[in-house]
Amino acid sequence: MEGLLVVIGGIVIAIPIAVIYLLISHSGVKSRLAEVEKELTALRLRAGSPAPLERPRREREEQQAPAAPPPAAPAEPAKPASPPPPPAAAVIAARQAASASASAEPRPPSQPDWTQRLSAWLMHNWFYAVSALSLALAGLFLVQYGMENGLLPPTARVVAALAFGAVLIGAGEYIRRRFGDGEDTATAYLPSVFSGAGIVSLFGGVLSARLLYDLIGPETALIGMVLVALVALVLGWFYGPLLAAVGVIGAFAAPFVVGGSSDDPTIFYGYFAIIAALGLGIDTLKRWAWVSALSLGLAYGAGWLLVDGADQTVAAFVAYVFALAVMAVLIPARSVSPDHGGAMLHQMTPTTRPIFPTWLAAGALAATVLALVSTAQAGAAEFGLSVLALSVLAGAWTCWSVRAPALQDQTLLPVAGLGAAVVLVGLDRAPIVTDYLTTYVDAPEAKFPLTVTALVGIGVVLSLLTAWRSLRGGAFAPLWALAAAVIAPGLAVLIEVTWQPATAIGAYPWALHAAALAALMSVMAERFARVDGPEHRLRTAFFVLSALSCITFALVLMLSLAALTAAIAVTVVVAAWLDRKFDLPQMAWFVAAGVVTLGYRLVADPGMVWAVDTGLAEMVLAYGSAFAAMVAGLWLLRPRAAQGRRDEAMLMLDSAAWSFGGILVTLLVYRAISYVLDEDSVGSHWAMGLFATIWFGLALAQVQRMAGRPLLRWLRAGLAAVFALIGLLALLAATVLTSPLLSDWFGDVAGQPLFNTLAPAYLAPALVFALGVWRIGTLPRLLRLGMTGLAGALGLLWLFCVIRHFWQGTEAMELSYGMGQGELYTYTVALLLAGAGLFYQSMAASSNLMRRAGLAVIGLAVAKVFLVDISGLGGLVRVFSLLVLGLSLAGLAWLDRWAQAKSAAQGDAAD
Questions:
Q1: CA 640, 644, 647 angle in degrees (round to 5)?
Q2: Backbone φ and ψ of 81, nearest 5°
Q3: Does residue 842 sit in helix, strand or coil?
Q4: What SS3 class is residue 223?
Q5: Least confident of 205-214, 411-420, 860-869
Q6: Helix (H, G, I), strand (E, B) or coil at 294
Q7: Mean pLDDT of the chain
Q8: How many whole angstroms separate alpha carbon 235 and alpha carbon 169?
Q9: What is the pLDDT of residue 78?
Q10: Which residues make beta-bridge pairs with 751?
Q11: Of 216, 295, 212, 220, which Cα lies nearest the Cα of 261?
């Protein structure tokens, strides 16, 4: 049975060899036929020359013809005819003509992609691929079959595999030297088939000697693989692309085909790295591009398969993927300092594309960063190695970008990977994080843990490197300075959010880290200010902003809630002062961020609930400092605003000043009423009114800011809508659910007439709407009309409640108690006075809208007199009510007539 299998195997191996032999045996005939066809083409191009078959016949006719007498000598000697070109020259001329005609042809509009080219090549040349596969498997199965059946001793099996590979390489080299390897020859691809299969067999023999039989040590195996790779590299420079494909694919597949097991599979990482270097080395001279992509793709895939099956090799895997990223940059450049030029990835356009080495470096770096981030969670040692590798990659790309500007934007990948590794480890509470946080739990006398300090130190080193890169100049020097100002503080903030190191080492030591970063950023700001001078302050501004942010970060860690709010307010003032002193437009970014942060703290965290429950001094400190900071910022930026600059910062400060001041006053009123009443009145009508007042003020601040950057307009509109909706719900509760006119469930009206809890409930929201209409000139017309109507309605409601409280007192505020004659008459007088006041103000302000509002109020008073007072009043009160109404209307009619005449006279004078 074994003999039959050997015979069948021999037949299988003999089939491709026989095909190859037949091709070689006919190669001479085909070559000579091709030369003849070229000669015919060249001869036909010669003008006036006879056809090749007619030349012998004409020569015989000339020999048989009688000799003619010599012609008479001409007056002027004729120029001798140029001799016909030799056959070699004719062939060259034909080739040149063919190439010229080919170049003159229009190019096709689009070229097939690599998948189409590969499928087309395999469709016409599939037997070459099958032949290479058969020969490569023959060498690998020779070793495996000998091991399984014990036909040869281990040394002989390895020697047989190596000898078989050497024979195949020799055969391929002989065919290449004897018949050629070009696509126009009959032996095209055959040298690559033989030599590629031989390389795979050599790799398989070396691997078998180490992994299957343990005949050599790891050092010898590594040397052997390097030697085989060098042979393959040299051959790849002389052969076609098929050799590279066969050699690379076969070499990566060899360990999986040979099989076996090993206690230490780390050697495979070195083996795969050598194969990847082989493919990159071939491509660095040939520039086929796909060879490098194929080599790196198989290298990363093989590495993932290996680490997935051998978890103990994670450290080696980290070194392996790190080496792949470095090789992908250095080998194509053939230098330890790459020189990638051209466009960067983010600069790609339909007409401008990065060169292939730039794409190759980006792809390898992205794959490496992804691998390092995924392995960072395996353990403390693996996290340290991954972080170190990411940091070195970020530093290397930063330094290399000086001579290789196309690599600049790729530096973001390892920096982002470093931040992602820190965040993922912190969120998952990996062992390295739990060990850090429990340092003093199990051992109170333990030494100070340095894990977080080391991470912050790595961020500092990267910030220094990117600052150095910015100092080297270039079009993207400001962006490098921005990276330097962000990397170290940003990494510290990520650590704070996900690790919370203060729980282990305390708030003060952790705040010292932030203070050290602030000092570093201040030094960098001074350095860049000296380099750039007063004309260019952009890079200096980045570091000043970073220093202020680090100071704020340190204050967040150490101070109380009120002190932190005050500290943030102080940093906003400092930013405005720096802008005024040194003309730093970028400080406006910090001012805007500070305004948003203060608004968040005053409203949400710790927010208004904290302001109600905490002490009065702390509340005043927090809200008073925020309001004072806004006013100070407006005063400091006034010179810039006079120059038509800092419009966005001034808009933010102005809207915040009004809203923060309104919140402060509202909270003081709330606490004063609560102190006087000495009760918890959160659900009362006046508390709901004050609550609505705050949210309406915040909504108006967002409406005012909508006049700023168009990019943020919809966001601000959404916030304004949300705040206004909350205010409307609170106002609905104040006017319906907790209204003293409808029920007494939530407390009675407290205070004296005109000075009671009705004012904060209804008059305060009305004043906010009126103030918004007066202040904000960019309000849409419909919104302005709506706010005016709400302000008037709330004012009338307040006036109605005040009059009823005056006549009925606290106990009879509900409408179910009815109305007396004095109360009804007072409502009429109040409506007439309100209408007259509006009417008078309309003439003073020349406002038709206010005049119409006054007429509406007067009309309401007239309707009340005729519909309510006539039936509800009696005696002289009814008479006086009608008398007052008639005199008032007469006076207002005269006043209206006088105002119209005056307006007409002024119009005529203007004409």
A1: 80
A2: -70, 140
A3: helix
A4: helix
A5: 860-869
A6: helix
A7: 77
A8: 9
A9: 46
A10: 756
A11: 212
Both tokens of residue 304?
Answer: 């993932």
Residue identified by tokens 């030599």 is: 195
Q: How does pLDDT run across 359-385, given as a tens digit for each residue?
A: 999 999 999 999 999 999 888 888 999
- CA separation for the pair 414, 425 (Å, rounded): 16
Residue 787: count other Cβ atoms within 10 Å of its Cβ: 22
Q: List the single range of 257-261, 333-337, 492-496, 579-583 with lowest mean pLDDT.
A: 257-261
Per the structure block, which two tokens stand in for 713?
């307009």
pLDDT, residue 676, reads 87
Q: How long a stretch of residues is the chain?
A: 911
Neighbour-count burial of 604, counting CB atoms closer than 10 A to its CB (0-12 exposed, 13-18 middle, 19+ buried): exposed
Q: How far apart are CA 152 and CA 145, in angstroms?
A: 10
Dist CA 857 CA 723 (whole Å): 30
Of the pLDDT bands very low, low, confident and very high (cuts 50, 70, 90), residue 254 is low
Q: Which two tokens stand for residue 538?
A: 């952009």
What six digits make up the tokens of 310?
């051998």
Which residue carries 């810039």 as its tokens? 640
Tell whether the torsion through CA atoms of 647, 649, 652 and 653 is positive or negative: negative
According to DSSP, the residues that pair with 756 across neighbouring strands are: 751
Contacts of 346 (CB under 8 A, 6+ apart): 409
Q: Residue 810: what residue type?
A: T
Residues 639 and 646: their CA atoms lie apart, in Å, by: 10
Strand partners, 362: none
Peptide bond into 449 cis (omega under 30): no
356: burial class by Cβ within 10 Å (0-12, 13-18, 19+)?
Answer: middle
**Tokens 């005449």 belong to which residue?**
901
Contact 362, 410 (CB under 8 A): yes
- CA–CA distance, 566 with 672 (Å, rounded to integer): 23
Q: Is the peptide bond before 606 cis (omega within 30 degrees of 0)?
A: yes
Q: Which amino acid is at 872?
A: G
- Centre a 10 Å sphere on the Cβ of residue 811 and count the other Cβ atoms it contains: 10
Q: Which amino acid is at 153?
A: P
Question: Which among 37, 31, 292 is positioned nearest to 182, based on CA atoms?
Answer: 31
Cβ atoms of 637 and 576 within 8 Å: the answer is: yes
Amino acid identity at 522: S
The CA R_g of the chain, rounded to the nearest whole Å, is 46
Question: Which amino acid, 481?
Answer: A
User: Could you tell me if 281 and 235 are in contact, meaning their C-beta atoms sit under 8 angstroms apart?
Assistant: no
- Chain Cα centroid distance, residue 577: 32
- Nearest CA to 344 among 461, 462, 474, 463? 474
Cα–Cα dist 312/310, whole Å: 5
Backbone dihedral angles phi then psi of residue 492, each to the nearest 5 degrees? -65, -40
Which sign does the torsion angle of CA 541, 542, 546, 552 carry?
A: positive
Question: What is the secondary structure of 695-707 as a DSSP string?
Answer: HHHHHHHHHHHTT
CA distance 760 to 669: 8
Write down the residue that tokens 């390097």 correspond to.
226
236, pLDDT greater than 80: no
